[in-house]
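Researcher: First entry.
Model:
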Amino acid sequence: MCSLEKRDNLWILTITGDDQNRLNPTLIQSLLSTLKNLSSQSTPGSVLITTGKGRFFSNGFDLLWARASGSESAAAERLNFMVESFKPVAAALISLPMPTIAAINGHASAAGFLLAICHDYVFMRSDQGVLYMPEVDLGLPLPDYFAAVIREKIKSPLVLRDVLLAGVKIKGKEGVKLGIVDSVYDSAESTVEAALRLGEQLAGKKWVGGVYAEIRKSLYPQGCLVLGLTQKSIISKI
């Protein structure tokens, strides 16, 4: 459901789910297991690059699996299960002891959008794909940790309004203008190549992962609070 490749200090995580990389329980557990394993293998200079296979980075939670349960109440239980199961994935990314780069190869919707912006850097292709939070269009509530992380990643009230209350679909170049995306490239391949170049630059810094993670958490206090993350004192030398 996801693969992890190591190139020197760079770790490349590729989401390989169904044709839309929907976040079903199997893929969520695969992501969480991979991130936990990666955290334990972190060394100074480690960098994570996350991308997807195919036309989608991730189309969010697998609503088809939820609706296949046979009743509205059972579907709601399945959706809630995915919401709760995905929370540790967001927490694992925010607390990962290394820089992180999302190389968005296609559409990133709902939980897929959140997955992307939990990274430190967001690269996106300009020729295809949108960022989209469809909850208002689908009539679904926004999970509290989604709201907390998005509020701290997107600082403009007007952009927040358009993303969460208007369900706008944001292409790559617009994402740069809105401050959601760092830079765009003309294909999925060139997006990953740019992420690899940045990853090599960051790896050369040889930063201590634990320190990096704690500084990152200090930038997003409300998101960390809702995700159940606390800051640790890791001063060992002056």
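Researcher: Second entry.
Model:
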Amino acid sequence: MAAPAGPTRLAYFDDMWALRAPATILSLHQEEGGRRAVVLDATVFHPQGGGQPADTGAIVSAAGAGARFLVEDVRVKDGVVFHYGRFEDAAGEELSQGQSVSLEIDAERRKLNSRLHSAGHLLDNCMTNLGLKLEPGKGYHFADGPFVEYKGVVPADKLQDKKLELEKEANELISKGAKVLVSVFSYDEAAKLCGGALPSYISEGSTPRIVKFGDYPGCPCGGTHVADIADIGNLKVTNIRVKKGVTKVSYSISP
């Protein structure tokens, strides 16, 4: 099968809460081990990346009682999104290139992933509120032990106090609630929303996607988020530790 032409349009950038959407199949691929991959012109499926797991769901023939492709993993390579999975009925009808399809996202998984990702960003704001001026680093927003890392250290004798303060601050902000803004902006507009400057990995002249919680400065992010901080639910800081100049804050959220 020929390689797909051009990047996949990320439809969740336009509407982050759309769980159903139409699309057209550009190509189908047979992977080693029997796994299949579907490439679309546009997708509402979030591929694994940016510390967030992939969406799951289904790609269904728009004709109705046709083929149903179960999406088990989603990855992006060179801007092209690959939807990996299998047909629900292995002996039944398959999808074909150029076919119109309907995309269906697993709503519960998306909601959990979005809450976990937003919780990680909220902790960045809480660190600032507590006077901990550490630079945000890696984020892991998976259900099996989410955490955020910061460049810099919290003194060892302050770790337990800061753990309790972080959790208290986070839950106070959640209880108050605040709208979450997520959109694509020009480079200059994005810089203003992010406190006057963007990280060096954002190239000048680009149009970065920014997430911003209430009145707090925004930051570049390609993930999915809640509509309001209140939707995160109860947050617990399960551990905070320092190793090799990095502070790691582990957390969990209520089911």
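Model: Note on the second entry: Residues 212 and 218 are 4 Å apart (CA to CA).
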